[in-house]
Predict the 3D structure of the following.
Amino acid sequence: MTVLPLTIAVLVAGGVYLLLQPGLVRIVFGITLLSHAANLILLAAGVSAWRGEPLHEGPGVADPLPMAFVLTAIVITLAVTVLMLALARLGGNDDTYVMPDTEPRPEDDHERGTGETEERPA
Amino acid sequence: MSAVLPFLVAVPLLAAAVGVVLPGRVVRPLSVVVPLLTAAAGVWLLVEHRTGDPVVVQQVGGFVPGVAIPMVSDTLAAVMITVTGFTSAVVLAFAWLSGEARLRFLPSLALMLVAGVNGALLTGDLFNLFVFIEVMLLPSYALIAMTGTWRRLGIGRLFVVVNLVTSTILLIGVGLVYGVAGSVNMAVLAGADHDDPRYRLAVATVLLALSVKAGLVPFHSWLPRAYPATSAPVMALFSALHTKVAIYALFRVVSVVLGGFSDWVWLALALVLVTMLVGGYGSLGERVVRRNLSWQMVAGVGYILLGLAIGTRLGLASGLFYMLHHILVMGSLLLGAAAIEHVYRSGEFTRLSGLMRREPFLAIVMALAMLSLVGFPPSSGFFAKVGVVRAAAGLDDPQRAIVMGVVIVASVGSLLSMVRLWRHTFWGPPLEEMPSAGKEDHPCASEVEPGTRAPQRFVVPAAVLLAASLVLFVAPGLVFSITEQAADGLLDLSAYVEAVTAP
């Protein structure tokens, strides 16, 4: 029974480490790891503890609700991961420390004064 | 009656889907009409809750209660649907009139956002709350990325990462709640063992995630950075919908799922008081109109949640009243800022000046909205703040003095911020050169043409929202009676639980 918590712990630790990196692609990987951890937590939350499978009565059947949760969560994460990879690809670099709004570019259509520039921490 | 609830989600979602293929001249009016329809449905539900059933439930899919996905409307949900629907309609009307909605897919994405908001307001199930918050966030990621150019994409990264990590924490919290209590149905959770430390820890995880989404200090720092980077109408939409839905969910979860803060009232009070102070004084360092306003959004979160932290009937009712006031007034201010930016192409204090004489109508609207934000009559802010302070007067002695003192000190901060905003943009010498002059992307038009004025159609949406705020000032009794009814629904859960769990 210690395998599941240990797996979750490793996934969360790896996910948090990657989240703290500057590049958006690494952050995407970090979020993916975190969402895997969340899915495992959902499964750990009660495979057969609370209710059985609704159509078939008998021993050894699993609770359908956590599985429905996990399925929904996987789909949502997939969609957002694709979007984030697109965001990482756009705009020159994928660095999240240097916001692209630091230098106005010629192709900027609406200059609306987002103000001061920020320097990358050394 | 209850059959209308799924349509509040389905109709905007369907309109969004249809809007992708329809030509723009059809979609733009559609994006105004559909939120108005949901607002009308909200009014209808409000009347029903006042005269008939206090709680209307639809068990979607026809499963037995407990397994079915319930959609629940009570006074709180209905009043939120009305106000958010109305505000979205006005903001989208501005986007239409100002030409911003000419961006392909913007009306569709906004409608999808409205669908997610209505779903999050109506759901009676924690997991579906997560799902609908995601439905709400997905179009927002696109809206943030599309209404700007490359510079907004950087902010889009920040916004997506913050919200996605928060959503994951919310999902983990929901999983933990299910693990402890065996259900994610809020009506069932209302009867769970609220003193079980494991349960309280699980709900605390959910509350943590919702606090980040609401922009409560110390989780606020993403909000003043992310929101001003989008275009002004989109920021107005986000301000009316995003943080407010998270605040609504906090009200719901704390009251129904957790049964009040009990021993942790001091922590809740401390957080909201710090939020008010940080938000109130945070604006003072900003030199751009909408950045200035974004800190006042943070301050507003503090005042609204103060009502929840106090937790009495009066506290909840005035917190909700403050939320309605804040949605309308913030929308009005942001649309005013949007009008300035559309005409003068800048929102920077150093470039704007003397707008009071050029734009008398806009100046009146903005002045009244600023007074309302700080809490002066004649608009809703006055009664909102009176309500919050009256609720604070019901606390015990050391806390009462601290809370009322902090409310006053924080309001002075908001006042100073608004004075600063007014002095730099509306006062001062008349504009001589266009604020956008000398910028790379607007090399021409350095002289201010004598005819440069904000057209009426840019200012009217802001005036409409302000007028709604004035209605709240003229008829506070009516609105307070509605929010008091909503507060009763949060304090006495018997009708809610009975309606949701009845077979």
